[in-house]
Amino acid sequence: MSAHWLGWLVAFPALMSLLVAACGRWPNLRESISVATAVALFAGIALFVEPVTAGARPSLTLFEVLPGVGLTFTLEPLGLLFALVASGLWSVTTIYAAGYMRGNEEHAQTRFFVCFALAISAAIGIAFSGNLLTLFIFYEMLTLSTYPLVTHHGDVESRNGGRVYLGILLTTSIGFFLPAIIITYLITGSITFDEAGLFGEAGLSVLGAGALYALFLYGTGKAALMPFHRWLPAAMVAPTPVSALLHAVAVVKAGVFIVLKLSVYVFGVQFLADTGASELMMWVAAFTVLGASLIAMTRDNLKARLAYSTVSQLSYIVLGATMASSFGILGGGMHIAMHAFAKITLFFCAGAIYTATHRKYVSELDGLGYAMPITFTAFFIASVSLIGIPPMGGIWSKWYLMEGAADSGHTAIIMVLALSSLLNIVYLLEIPTRAFFHNPRPDTPRNWHEAPWACVIPLSITATGCIVWFFYPLPFLKLLAPWAP
Amino acid sequence: MIEAFFAQMPALVIVLPLLAAPLCVLLHRGGPSWFVYLLTTWACFGLAFLLFVQVKIGGPISYAMGGWSPPFGIELRLDALNTVVLLLVTGIAAISSVYAKASVAAEIASERAYLFYAALLLCFCGLAGITVTGDAFNLFVFLEISSLSSYALIAMGSKRRALLSAFQYLIMGTIGGTFLLIGIGFLYMMTGSLNMADIASRLPAVADTRTVEAGLAFIVVGTSLKFALFPVHVWLPNAYTYAPSSVSAFIAATATKVAVYALMRFLFTVFGAAYAFDRLPLGEVLLVLSVAAMLSGSMAAIFQTDVKRLLAWSSIAQIGYIVMGFALASSAGVSASVVHMVNHGLIKGALFMAVGAMFWRLRTISLNDIAGLGRQMPITSAAFVVAGLSLIGVPATGGFISKWVLLEAVIAPGHYWLAAAILVSSLMALIYIGRVVEVLYFRERPEGRPDVGEAPVLMLVATWTLVLANIAVGLYATPLIAAAQRAASAVLGDGS
């Protein structure tokens, strides 16, 4: 595949969003275009799998934004993995979104699908970015294109949610990420991602490197490290398909993908291991893993509980990056995919429950399992995958993360991961338990049934994915081979 | 023939608007006057572009006005710095002339429209004159031409408060002009010359005198009043708020930049960076004032309920960025100043034009009255949003490029507290722009406001030209940065 395609792949969803906007009057055509775009995008990206696993790193510089710094796309395994996950799940989500938006009779559906396509364009841009400036441009584009989605309902609640969303994401990126890029540029004279890292000969002190690393990680607000995690629960005012794809996959995974990418291609795993510059942020991530799990237990609103669970799970990947071991990168990369499949399933289920019953609190779900068996079975499968028990794919990422912790000598991190699994059991399995083993509340009508097929099929697909990746994790292992033992 | 034309270009930039202004008075009607204004500004824009290219290729141009050779006659002198400023001034003037027609027809009584265009041309002439002249006294004269005409322009605003704010501006502007004149007088006293290059060559001999030091102080204060540096900024919010929309857009984007240019010219070309920044602590003073301007201006902007006044306070903050750049007296700093001059011109021009388009429809621009306008004027509102993002400094916009080069300039010598001030001020911009955006898109249309439509096409075209220019600069900033670096090395000398 020629490198020129990289630019087109990034631009493709954005260009198609124009077509989506033009077809606003014909909803079926509009959604067909969205699905076709998603499938074509996934296929286009998949064509790069073979050359990249063979060691090729296609690169394309469109033009120079600043002297010596271009708008550059370079494809490497982590970016390819993220792009595949985001585009692959986009096609499923589009079908789901069509069912959900129509089932709930949402307004401004055309704007919704247009912004969705723009957000995917931005996510692919992040995945392909070849230097920090390109990454930053698409990072902000992702923030801005998702803002209209978060505030979709246009009421006071969504306006306030949007304030927190934009406030935290832009404050961290402009306040921390931008100066971190410029400091890197001034120290090393380069902001192009490099397999060897940039700071090899810069003679940076441990303290300086640690401070810069912290500036980068907190600058990546989308990774939702505490105390800059509040935007994610705030984003839950959005319609559920947005929460499912963007705030369980594209946006948050962009954040942790950036953390991995920075650790590998800006600092270098070896550099981090030698200096211990990432140690502080590793403990921040460990704190976030446990803290967010504890908060999740207290949330009765289903989407809020899932959001805090996401905050916790994202820090698994940050742990993988910060423990400075190639097992950690492998585990983190795996977890991008595994968590994506599990969490999107959970959100799909939450949206299906809302569409069918208009219930959104955990305590209201008693006995609904018999009315919506497929949905709650899928919820159960995805929960088990997140907890990390066989036969679900989630075991693999947790396995490699623990191996990485052992490899780098951080026994305490193994404890954190184990403890987090226990907490996951408490707050996630409560939901299918209530649905299947509690008696229905007296006000539950008898005629409730599953949500529309457009909602049920996607969640079945992603739940099946959770099982398939247990038996067949090979595609991910092959992509992440550079970090495999 | 063509050679002769090229040789006369520096003079034509001033002569054309100077002749066009009385032509408007003779025409005595608004429509033809607008056409004269349009042609003149676009012609000057073309000239400025040719001059820019000529200087880029062939180096500085010196033009002896009336054939009297410098230092006795008036010299027009074009180098890498002022061709950029000239390009900005003429470019904004040309685009705002497209915008002006509908806006002026709505806001200025038709029997006075021709006078309005005459004053606008004079103001433009003054600004272009300040930019191109190489003569200190001539600079003062052009400054007064632009100031006097802008007092008249602001006074033509449709609210009665416009008169009062024009008067306020008149007092402050006159004080500023007088200070500048006294400063130039001191220099003349000590060197016997008014030509800038000539003064510069004669100054070292008398540099140790109080008179020269006082002259510098008078010039700094005088020009600072003109570009509204904190704490001598109080005239600006009223002037921008009550001026007619097309005037706000033009003046906000150009007049302060030209005054900043005048100060840079005096500091770097006449006095020399070593004198102003090493022997006297001017750098430290200006840095502190610029930080104060950034923070206080942004803070005040957050609390405004009139959008034009909000933008005016934001301008005071943005001037802080420009001053901070050249106050570093480094090559990176001066070029950051030039970059932000251009970008801020593009941003504020676009914002004031968008706001002017809303005013054109509603006859008011307070936050409560524009509620829910995002649905009724989607094109205008979108322009405001994109230009606002540029003001905040979101990547892929011109404002981001400004932040980038300025942060680079302050972090390289280790001024982390200045970097922090820049970032805090940017985030405050997020708050005040965010307030307007929320009102435009999330609040319902107030009771009793008619269901208005979009602004006239020409206004939208002009606004979006500037908005797209912002994005173009944000994505492809290399030419602008190269021009700014040439400008910096032209005024600092290649050594520093």
Automatic annotation (TrEMBL), chain A:
Gene Ontology molecular function: any one: oxidoreductase activity
Keyword Membrane in annotation: yes
InterPro entries attached to this UniProt entry: CPA3_Na-H_Antiporter_A (IPR050616), ND/Mrp_TM (IPR001750)
One Pfam assignment: Proton_antipo_M
Protein location: Endomembrane system; Membrane
Keyword list, A-Z: Membrane, Oxidoreductase, Transmembrane, Transmembrane helix
Main subcellular location of this protein, as a coarse class: membrane
Entry's Gene Ontology cellular component terms: endomembrane system; membrane
Residue ranges occupied by any NADH:quinone oxidoreductase/Mrp antiporter transmembrane domain in the UniProt entry: 129-422
Enzyme Commission identifier(s): 1.6.99.5
Segments traversing the membrane: 6-23, 35-58, 78-100, 112-139, 164-186, 198-219, 256-274, 280-298, 310-330, 368-389, 409-430, 451-472
Membrane topology: Multi-pass membrane protein
Main EC class the enzyme belongs to: oxidoreductase
The protein, known as: NADH-ubiquinone oxidoreductase subunit protein
Species annotation: Salinisphaera shabanensis E1L3A
Native organism taxonomy: Bacteria, Pseudomonadati, Pseudomonadota, Gammaproteobacteria, Salinisphaerales
UniProtKB/TrEMBL annotation, chain B:
Listed Pfam families: Proton_antipo_M
EC identifiers of the protein: 1.6.5.3
Domain of life where this protein originates: Bacteria
GO molecular function annotations of the record: NADH dehydrogenase (ubiquinone) activity; oxidoreductase activity
One BP term from GO: ATP synthesis coupled electron transport
GO CC terms of this entry: plasma membrane
Main localization of the protein described in the UniProt heading: membrane
Signal sequence segment: none
Membrane topology: Multi-pass membrane protein
Name of the protein in its database record: NADH dehydrogenase I subunit N protein
Domain NADH:quinone oxidoreductase/Mrp antiporter transmembrane, first and last residues per copy: 135-428
PANTHER family, sorted: NA(+)_H(+) ANTIPORTER SUBUNIT D1, NADH DEHYDROGENASE
UniProt subcellular location: Cell membrane; Membrane
